[in-house]
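Protocol step 4 of 6: record predicted structures for both targets in the notebook before any analysis. Target 1:
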Amino acid sequence: MSKADLSKQPAQVSAMFDDVSTHYDRTNNVLSVGNALLWRVATTNAVGPKPGERILDLAAGTGTSSASLAKTGAHVVAADFSPGMIEVGKRQQAGNQNVEFVVADGMNLPFENDEFDAVTISFGLRNIVEPKVALAELFRVTKPGGRIVICEFSTPPIAPIRIGYSAYLQRVMPALAKLASSNPAAYLYLADSIKDWPNQSTLSKWLRETGFANVGYRNLTAGIVALHRGTKPHPATVSATASPPPESFDADVTQ
């Protein structure tokens, strides 16, 4: 069984996700205690896909999130570094003309500058060896005026919840992974990567440093997950990124 470590070597990460691709969606539903659907709805609403838009869904896995985005008539490019995930996604979304699957490296995207109306990544940024490089690539391929939405595990701000969540990652999740996953060792990496990931304010800072404006975040499930979003400014308004905007926005689901 394949398990990556926190060095996040691309070959290790890709092989690990190839191993879990067959039962990936089922395992996510089990480990999230059903919250995965709510997080996907929140992400889709935050992206706000419109008919005819071109949207990049990076780290799309099997394309479940991409299919949700495509329901409005947007054309969604589902990109992932794992060929195994892409193959499962192609089978699951066969016949969906609005979802296109591409094997892609998040640090070297095979797309043109200013190509997408919106870009999004769910639970994948922390698996990239250089997340700031990936953010720069997402900025590059976003059209001026386009938007970014990131859904990622984060840091609960309330201490008792933070302590309880840490206990869940250390004790409960490994037991559930043994029951639900074809590669439970991979989910030990998942727990490690969550604990190692920076908090909401740090990711907001990264987005601003990349060049995104109107950056904000909203906690979901008491901060276990956070939605971040921003916009790529038009060249004439780049100076708007000089003063940090409020780090909050209204999503369409309750925390």
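Target 2:
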Amino acid sequence: MKAARFDYLRPASVVEAVAALAQDAGAKPVAGGQSLGPMLNLRLARPSTLVDVSKIADLRRVDERPDGVLYGAAITHAEFEDGTVPDPTPGFLARVAHGIAYRAVRNRGTVGGSLVHADPAADWPTTLTALGARVVLAGPSGARELALEDFILGAFSTALADGEIVTGVFIPRCSPQARFGYRKSCRKVGEFAEAMCAVLADPARGVHRLVVGATEGRHIVVTEAAAVIADPALLDARLTAAGLAAEPATLRLHQKVVRQAIEQLTTVPETESLPA
């Protein structure tokens, strides 16, 4: 199947992109197109206009700060994987990026696009929520920031207002002693995850966060996770409340993935090489 007819615009700035979206209620922004492209071809999405933001300079910026790094929304997965952008963590971003789909997807897919799509089984929403990331938005009313757990409201649902676009994501700087566990279960490489968990332990900053993804709904976010890290069974009630107990096999899979992610806090060396 082919996409329905649409107009195409390539604005030169965020201001122009926001104006284009404001003028056409049926317009949608696009950057890498790795999620939107298939939806267009299946006619699950029928925008009147595609507003291509992939070449806007502000969305390709990287602003390194003492407390973290602000990445433009159009930074690709491959750029994180290859280390061509600074990493405020001890290598966690490259490790996660390496496991996203296939290299062809990573070459085109963007971090902003992943967050806006808000697929519960996607790597960045789970990972960056665990890292305490914040999204930066621009729209007709100006700019604003939201914690990622407040931005993603549920499966494929965000707090993005009409005419707004994600312009960047800020990732706080971890201490050199920070530990990170990430585990996802897929039937084969490149497929959507059936269960996933990201956990950050950074005692130097007093941060212990755990996030469960691939829940078919809103992520399970534990912002004070020290107790859960010590005893993963404490999370069982949250998993059940999320509806995962309806299928016992699904619940057991999520419980196992959570335990494996927590185990990585002590078993994965800080200088771990990327998986083959």
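Step 5 preliminary note on target 2. The first strand starts at residue 7 and ends at 9. DSSP finds eleven helices and 14 strands in the chain.
Proceed to step 6 after PI sign-off.
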